[in-house]
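Treating backbone geometry as a discrete language has practical consequences that deserve illustration. The sequence in question and its structure tokens are set out directly beneath this paragraph.
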Amino acid sequence: AGGRYDGHLVLVRGSMLRDTSRDLGWSRLAAAVEIHDLPGDHVTLVTRHVAEVAEAIRGAMEQHAAGRPAP
């Protein structure tokens, strides 16, 4: 079911994650992956670093709305 997503995906990940694949494998499933490395880990991203997560998402949405390419 499904297939490759032809759109733009925004990946927010904690900088404490020690995965060898920076995009965590998402580039196999999406045409474009925009990666934001933020402070913390999986839990603290949504408990202590909510403002940083919101800013990353807000910035991606604003760029999309303005028709500008992602960084």
About this structure: The chain has two helices and two strands.
